């Protein structure tokens, strides 16, 4: 049998979720797809899928084989595009993964990059976790962390994130303006739940560190929702700086404790190491390294303006 073809069909079945959906994508009949997977199992002498009338489930052998298939097919595709000069001219599909919150920053940059390189088609996935590009098939993962990832992947630093403390003018008029982190304990501090953040708020100045625990009154895992809650006067919020910029500029929120530094996290572009780096990956990462700091600088001008401070 054509082993590579069988591997491609097997991977497509898993990605599509069914034989029928895979058949439509491959322009084959459902029977042909089912037979190709059965032939592959017979060739390997291993059961890859458990089939029921409602769903497909990978066996343990199937999970291991799926990972190797993606690696092998990726290398075959890399060899094919290299032979066509793809390492010289950006083209083809670029699969990018980013943490949810960064999506509002990344999407406009994709549009600008795409205007420069219209032959590149983007596939952007947003989620609340940092995936392994090799396991999930992403070309570039935009990752957030406090330190350089311990990985065999190439990691390019493209910026840094921090959060700012905000509250609505109405809330501050009713409850007063805290002058020090310790005074936040007397306020209703709302909890933004993020997978990479600790629950407490950590403030630093030149002499010491200060911890503040948010209340249980309101919590959400979406920064934009937290910003709306704070604008509505529910309490004090800790927002990613890029989420806080617009309501601060519009006067709907005021920044608190601007003299204190909060926990900083770094942004990395991660991608598999390759001898011949695909042009679309190389140019996209270079574009991010150049343009993302410029985007951050625009936000910083608003955040550092005392007119937006309480």
Automatic annotation (TrEMBL):
Single GO term (MF): sequence-specific DNA binding
InterPro entries: LysR-type_TF_proteobact-type, LysR_HTH_N, LysR_subst-bd, WH-like_DNA-bd_sf, WH_DNA-bd_sf
One Gene Ontology biological process: DNA-templated transcription
Protein's UniProt keywords contain DNA-binding: yes
Keyword set includes Transcription: yes
Name listed for the protein in its UniProt record: LysR family transcriptional regulator
PROSITE patterns for the chain: HTH_LYSR
Annotated signal peptide: none
Lineage start: Bacteria, Pseudomonadati, Pseudomonadota, Gammaproteobacteria, Pseudomonadales
Highest rank taxon of the organism: Bacteria
Keyword list, A-Z: DNA-binding, Transcription, Transcription regulation
Family note: Belongs to the LysR transcriptional regulatory family.
Every HTH lysR-type domain range: 1-59
């Amino acid at each position: 049998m054509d082993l590579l073809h069988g591997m491609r069909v097997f991977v497509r079945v898993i990605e599509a979720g069914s034989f029928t959906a895979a058949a439509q994508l491959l322009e084959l009949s459902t029977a042909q797809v089912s037979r190709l997977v059965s032939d592959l199992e017979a060739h390997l002498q291993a059961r890859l899928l458990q089939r029921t009338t409602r769903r497909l489930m990978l066996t343990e052998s199937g999970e291991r084989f799926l990972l190797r298939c993606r690696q092998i097919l990726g290398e075959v595709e890399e060899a094919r595009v290299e032979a066509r000069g793809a390492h010289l001219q950006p083209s083809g599909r670029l699969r990018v993964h980013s943490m949810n919150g960064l999506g509002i920053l990344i999407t406009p940059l994709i549009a600008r990059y795409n205007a420069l390189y219209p032959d590149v088609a983007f596939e952007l996935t947003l989620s609340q976790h940092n995936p392994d590009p090799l396991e999930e098939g992403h070309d570039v993962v935009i990752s957030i962390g406090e330190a350089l990832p311990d990985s065999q992947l190439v990691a390019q630093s493209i910026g840094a994130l921090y959060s700012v403390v905000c509250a609505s003018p109405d809330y501050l008029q009713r409850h007063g303006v805290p002058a020090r982190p310790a005074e936040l304990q007397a306020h209703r501090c709302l909890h933004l739940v993020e997978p990479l953040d600790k629950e407490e708020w950590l403030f630093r100045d030149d002499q010491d560190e200060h911890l503040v625990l948010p209340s249980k009154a309101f919590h959400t895992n979406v920064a934009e929702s937290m910003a709306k809650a704070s604008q509505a006067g529910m309490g004090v919020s800790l927002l990613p700086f890029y989420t806080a910029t617009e309501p601060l500029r519009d006067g709907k929120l005021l920044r608190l404790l601007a003299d204190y530094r909060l926990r900083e996290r770094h942004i990395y572009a991660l991608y598999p190491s390759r001898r011949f780096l695909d042009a679309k990956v190389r140019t996209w990462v270079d574009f991010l390294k150049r343009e993302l700091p410029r985007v951050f600088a625009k936000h910083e001008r608003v955040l550092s303006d005392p007119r937006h401070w309480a």
